[in-house]
Amino acid sequence: MDLKTGLVGSGSTESRELDLVIAGGGPAALAAALYAARYDIDHIVLESYQPGGQAALTAVIENYPGIKTITGGDIVTAMKEQAESWGAVFEMASVLSAEPLKDGIQIKADSSTYMARNLIIATGAAPAKLGVPGEDKFYGRGVSYCATCDAPFFRDARVLVVGGGDSAVKEALHLSDFVSELVIVHRRDKFRAEPYLAHKLLSCGNCNVMWNTTLKEIKGDESVEGVILNTPEGEKEMKFDGIFMYVGRKPATEPFANLVELNDNGTVRTHNIVHTSRENVFAAGDVTDNDLRQIVTAVSDGARAASAVFDKLQ
Ligand code: NAP
Fold first, then answer.
1. How far apart are CA 198 and CA 164, in angstroms?
2. Which domain range does residue 192 map to?
């Protein structure tokens, strides 16, 4: 390696050697970046093309201690600016693969290849698909996974929300300010979402809940026109202009499948919160199997992971 430039190899394939690569751009990665910069660790953050991760797509955050209410976009922007003010280094890049080396990890991104002594996986999760007929066909033509992004397109429309967790209920509440009528279908008779959100939705004027109901099919010609639902009374056809899906998340762990142990659901298997099956690889935030998946726990994981790397480098 050329110690002056940090480059190894020749030709167009650039390869950099670093103490730490942080993969991801959400709250876990941003907290890890802040702590890594303050610990003066030689690092880079490989931020995906969706800066801020899923948090950036959340309409309102009301449970981050110390901040009464803030948009997801604003909180991740503030986190990134704070990390950069301490010297955190970001590069927009997708991680394609990560392979173990004798003394580190080789991380291939679409921009460069990195030889990292340590890696923090904080790549988060993407919305899960339901897998019903019409879901792919009408994606972007009535089917959406992001009310914060798409709600204004559904002003005075009739929309269906699928799911019963925090995301479904929270984003349904956001949508209810735009649409004329909103129906939320949940496969059970009780929301998984925190009670405060559930109560708020149940008292929302233009919202209706259909319990024990699942989405069977999305119908339409050029765009969504309606759905077939499986209800306790049998199949029911209803007209809607838009469908918002919130049926969980799929962890973004594919590039790390050869590096660390994953759980059956694809999350990174951790012990002591941020430690993985490989001693120089740490994981933080929604990509892990940790039970509480909140911004507050993601930033805590990020800080712990950077601190563990700092301890290892001493
Ligand atoms: P989630 O909590 O896993 O909820 C997914 C919902 O989709 C559940 O209600 C689930 O039903 C339903 N579901 C899953 N598969 C389904 C299927 N095949 N058909 C029909 N329904 C299906 O996911 P999330 O709401 O995206 O939240 C993920 C994590 O982020 C959670 O830990 C959550 O607390 C956190 N989060 C927090 C906030 C906040 O503001 N505090 C906001 C968003 C997310 P069941 O209930 O029957 O399993």
1. 9
2. 129-245
pLDDT, tens digit (0-9, with 9 covering 90-100), for 89-135: 999 999 999 999 988 999 999 989 999 999 999 999 999 999 999 99
User: Could you give the residue numbers annotated as active site?
Assistant: 146, 149-150
Instruction: Tell me the C-alpha distance between 160 and 218, whole Å.
Output: 11
C-beta of 293 in contact with ligand 1 (< 6 A): yes
Do 86 and 232 sit in the same domain of this protein?
A: no
Whether 264 is covered by a domain: the verdict is yes
Instruction: Give the Cα separation of 276 and 265 in Å (integer).
Output: 16
- What's the sign of the alpha-carbon dihedral 74, 81, 289, 23? positive
* pLDDT at site 163: 98
Give the span between the Cα atoms of 244 and 232, in whole angstroms: 22
Residue 62 CA, closest ligand 1 atom number: 40
Q: Which of 202, 217, 245 is the last residue of a domain?
A: 245
In this model, does residue 144 exceed pLDDT 50? Answer: yes
Kindly report the pTM of this predicted structure.
Answer: 0.85
State the pLDDT at residue 246. 97
Task: Looking at the CA of residue 186, tell me the nearest atom of ligand 1.
Answer: 21
What does each C-alpha distance from 49 to 52, 139, 240 come to in angstroms? 9, 19, 31
Find the 146 Cα to ligand 1 centroid distance in Å. Answer: 14
Q: Does a structural domain hold residue 9?
A: no
